[in-house]
# Entry
Amino acid sequence: MAAPHQKEQLDQIVELIRRHGGRVTVPRRAVIAAILEGDGHRSADDIGRAVQAEHPDVALSTVYRTLDALQQLGVIEHSHLGHGAAVYHLTDHGHVHLVCRSCGDVTDVPDEIVAELTARLDDEHGFALAPRHFAMFGTCRRCRPD
# Structure
């Protein structure tokens, strides 16, 4: 059973889909629920497995189309956290990803952390940085030698 906050988020996303003329089907609801119930960074295959565990008749192609539709609506975005598959997460709180090269731990930090860099690159080089799309790699405090 979804937590009350997740139910509220699901209802808001469903309403957004309807406002944009989209149909709200059982598979679409299942994809949204799988995203909301996940840890915030799930691959399309992980989402597909979660959906198919509850609805075995839902094709993976339906999951991929739903993810695309949700991206177009601005509900989710995908990021590349390294060599693996892209992961999807909600856009409700803007953040960038820091990935430790040693242990693989992923830390979400607010967009404001890179805001100055983003503005400076735009001002000085005319370059519009999209810091959410790819992770920033380094070494976390636990793995860094003292």
